[in-house]
């Protein structure tokens, strides 16, 4: 039992990776669509390269989007609107009009013509309200039919039969003239204008309800293909009706209700393919990025990003398939490049795009566009912390999307007439969404405890609180750190290491000297040496202690682990040689272990560069009259000694790269000491 527990403990990192691998596979398979996958690509405008295809079952032919859209427009255009007719208003208006007659006409006229005038008014009101009076004109075609709703009954009438408010004066004038009442025109017009009111109004609610009902009843199919019918022969060009039939077969195939057995087999197939894709990613990391593979936090971070992109794409497809390119997939390679390197970012991007091919329609087109965009992203964004670079890269990514989409449309349609301008807008939105990568990287740093170049740029600011404190308490050390940072940055650039990381590590590597600054020669401003009152062993412990103190200060100020690594390793396991030899003069049996730094030795190119630059810069202060030859021998001697002690065994740096670093250090030191040819006086 204890052996099993020990094995479990020793292999817990491996077990975690297996668990993460299985969990990621399950989540991705869960997000994938569960219908069957049509096994043929439909190459529009190209010959059918497969064998003759026969209908495997009965299925309906789907109408094209253009046909459905045209049908909807026809229905909308020919739809008959509803107008509501107020049946109570005519009687009320007639009563009011008769009352107005008594008010408007003088008694002398009424005594003779009251009955005739009342009859005329009643008849005219009836004529006005035969089909009703509409206040506003909708400017419909006069011959268009409309439904006039009286109570629960709707009658079909021509729109021109309904009297409009703007027509009432002309209508009344004509009626008065025809009746022979021209001498009473003014009084009669006053009667009607004081009493007549509109009683017809447009019924928008009922009109829209009827329209929606008709639109919902549109048939999206036309005709049926029977089982066994030949759909297309080998060599036939896929276009027109043939293309629509193949598209209909694909849609029917992928939307079929599968039996439980078939469904299970589909899950098995998806699981196998997803597992293979993720396994390739793990094998790539194990083969070429072992440091990342061994770090479970980094592996988790990579898998999380894949799941995140699959989930975003699934949401976009389920919401509206037209928005699939709004998902900023290029954030994935940008993020991984910021935290790791370009090759891992591109490889992960390709694996993710392959997985997304199961989700999106036109998968070949989608994968081509996204892989090309990912390559452009990796090639164009060199320094993510520079905002201008990111904006330029986003512009290039968007341009690549547009060019590739244009090319695909021309290939498929044979012209540019069917190109959809709204697709270009989705590309633009996707490009703008890519700008979200900077705040996203900040969130990732806080969640996963990693550091990107953007954070390193912030840390390299010498006005930061910690570096200002170092400059105040240990000005000599601060100046030394600046010199080492310049050397380390130049050396890292020469061998293609992370120059920003090397510079930041160099700036903070000696912050532990703030505790006892006067015990370090660069901070001693007087002739009094603080070590004169201490034994060599005590002095050595103070010197060694600056590494431990530096780690404590760094953690207290929340410096990233990648920066703390420089503090921890910049002396490796070397000895404090001066005080060791001084102690040995007094005691021959002195052990060098008592004067040795705790380590560990550098384990990256950047930390190895810092060790070389730190030792060379510090020791160069002892040179009295430096010459070019003296500096060359001096650099060779210091770095060769570090190599003999095995300080660079774990740092993955080659002999060639060490020689390149030596060359840079020699050149920089000669520049610092202003060595030049001596001209004769």
| Arrangement of strands in the largest sheet | 6-5-3-8
CATH 2nd-level architecture of the largest domain:
Orthogonal Bundle
Low-confidence stretches: none
Topology-level CATH name of the largest domain: Hypothetical protein af1432
**First-last Cα distance:** 87 Å
CATH class of the largest domain: Mainly Alpha
**Annotation field: number of helices:** 28
Shape: elongated
Strand content: 5-15%
Number of strands: 10
Structural class: mainly alpha
Instruction: Give the averaged pLDDT, no decimals.
Output: 84
Helix content percent band: 55-70%
- Total domain units: 3
Query: What's the story with the biggest beta sheet?
Result: 4 strands, mixed
- Gyration radius, rounded: 43 Å
InterPro entries: HD/PDEase_dom (IPR003607), HD_domain (IPR006674), HDIG_dom (IPR006675), Metal-dep_PHydrolase_7TM_extra (IPR011624), Metal-dep_PHydrolase_7TM_intra (IPR011621), PgpH_phosphodiesterase (IPR052722)
Organism: Christiangramia forsetii
Pfam families: 7TM-7TMR_HD (PF07698), 7TMR-HDED (PF07697), HD (PF01966)
Keywords: Membrane, Transmembrane, Transmembrane helix
Would you give an account of this structure?
The structure is a single chain. This protein has 28 helices and ten strands. The longest helix is centred in the middle third of the chain and has 29 residues, at 260-288. A hairpin with a 2-residue loop joins strand 5 (145-150) and strand 6 (153-158). The protein is elongated. The chain folds into three domains: 1-36 and 261-437, no CATH class; 77-215, no CATH class; 453-673, Hypothetical protein af1432. Helix 2 packs across helix 10, helix 26 (605-620) packs across helix 27 (628-644) and helix 27 (628-644) packs antiparallel against helix 28. With 681 residues, the chain is mainly alpha-helical. The protein has helices at residues 2-10, 12-31, 65-78, 89-104, 107-128, 168-178, 185-195, 204-216, 240-255, 260-288, 290-293, 296-319, 331-339, 342-356, 363-380, 387-413, 421-434, 437-448, 453-459, 465-473, 475-494, 499-508, 536-556, 561-569, 577-586, 605-620, 628-644, 655-672; strands spanning 53-54, 59-62, 82-85, 133-134, 145-150, 153-158, 163-164, 200-202, 221-225, 230-232. The chain crosses the membrane at residues 14-32, 263-285, 297-317, 344-360, 366-385, 390-411, 423-444. Keywords: Membrane, Transmembrane, Transmembrane helix. Residues 477-619 form the HD domain. It comes from Christiangramia forsetii. This is HDIG domain-containing protein.
């Amino acid at each position: 039992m204890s052996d099993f527990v020990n094995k479990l403990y020793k292999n817990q990192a491996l077990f975690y990776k297996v668990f993460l691998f299985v969990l990621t596979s399950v989540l991705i398979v869960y997000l994938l669509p569960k219908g069957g996958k049509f096994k043929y690509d439909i190459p529009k405008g190209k010959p059918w390269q497969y064998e003759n295809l026969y209908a495997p079952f009965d299925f309906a032919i789907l109408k094209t989007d253009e046909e459905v859209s045209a049908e909807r427009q026809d229905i909308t255009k020919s739809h008959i609107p509803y107008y509501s007719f107020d049946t109570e208003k005519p009687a009320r208006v007639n009563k009011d009009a008769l009352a107005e007659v008594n008010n408007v006409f003088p008694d002398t006229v009424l005594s003779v013509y009251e009955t005739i005038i009342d009859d005329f008014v009643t008849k005219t009101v009836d004529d006005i309200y035969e089909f009703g009076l509409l206040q506003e004109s909708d400017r419909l075609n006069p011959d268009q039919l409309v439904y006039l709703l009286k109570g629960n009954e709707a009658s079909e009438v021509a729109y021109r039969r309904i009297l409009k408010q703007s027509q009432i004066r002309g209508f009344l004038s004509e009626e008065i003239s025809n009746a022979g009442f021209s001498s009473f025109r003014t009084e009669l017009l006053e009667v009607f204008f004081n009493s007549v009111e509109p009683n017809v109004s447009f019924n928008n609610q009922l009109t829209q309800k009827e329209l929606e009902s008709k639109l919902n009843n549109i048939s999206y199919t036309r005709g049926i293909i029977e089982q066994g019918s030949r759909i297309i022969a080998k060599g036939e060009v896929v276009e027109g009706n043939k293309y629509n039939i193949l598209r209909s077969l694909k849609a029917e195939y992928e939307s079929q209700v599968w039996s439980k057995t078939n469904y299970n087999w589909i899950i098995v197939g998806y699981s196998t393919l997803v597992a293979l894709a993720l396994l390739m990613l793990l094998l790539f990391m194990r083969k070429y990025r072992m440091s990342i593979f061994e770090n479970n936090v980094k592996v988790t971070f990579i898998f999380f990003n894949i799941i995140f992109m699959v989930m975003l794409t699934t949401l976009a497809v389920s919401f509206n398939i037209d928005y699939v390119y709004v998902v900023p997939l290029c954030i994935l390679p940008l993020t991984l490049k910021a935290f790791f390197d370009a090759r891992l970012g591109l490889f992960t991007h390709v694996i993710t795009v392959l997985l997304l091919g199961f989700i999106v329609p036109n998968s070949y087109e989608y994968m081509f566009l996204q892989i090309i965009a990912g390559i452009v992203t990796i090639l164009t964004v060199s320094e993510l912390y520079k905002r201008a670079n990111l904006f330029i890269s986003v512009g290039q990514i968007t341009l690549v999307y547009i060019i590739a989409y244009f090319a695909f449309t021309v290939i498929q349609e044979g012209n540019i007439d069917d190109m959809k301008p709204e697709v270009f807008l989705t590309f633009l939105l996707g490009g703008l969404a890519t700008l979200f990568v900077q705040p996203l990287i900040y969130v990732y740093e806080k969640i996963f405890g990693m550091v990107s170049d953007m954070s390193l740029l912030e840390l390299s600011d010498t006005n930061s609180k910690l570096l200002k404190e170092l400059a105040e308490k240990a000005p000599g050390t601060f100046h030394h750190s600046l010199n080492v940072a310049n050397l380390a940055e130049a050396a890292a650039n020469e061998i293609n290491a992370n120059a920003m990381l090397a510079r930041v590590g160099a700036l903070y590597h000696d912050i532990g000297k703030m505790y006892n600054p006067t015990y370090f020669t660069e901070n001693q401003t007087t002739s009094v040496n603080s070590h004169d009152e201490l034994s060599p062993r005590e002095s050595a412990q103070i010197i060694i202690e600056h590494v431990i103190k530096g780690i404590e200060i760094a953690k207290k100020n929340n410096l990233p682990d990648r920066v703390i690594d420089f503090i921890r390793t910049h002396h490796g396991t070397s000895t404090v040689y001066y005080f060791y030899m001084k102690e040995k003069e007094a005691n021959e049996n002195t052990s060098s272990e008592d004067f040795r730094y705790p380590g560990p030795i550098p384990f990256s190119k950047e930390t190895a560069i810092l060790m070389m630059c730190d030792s060379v810069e510090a020791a160069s202060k002892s040179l009295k009259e430096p010459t070019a030859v003296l500096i060359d021998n001096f650099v060779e001697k210091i770095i060769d000694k570090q190599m003999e002690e095995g300080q660079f065994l774990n740092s993955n740096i080659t002999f060639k790269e060490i020689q390149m670093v030596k060359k840079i250090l020699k050149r920089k030191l000669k520049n610092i000491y202003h060595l030049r040819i001596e001209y004769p006086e």
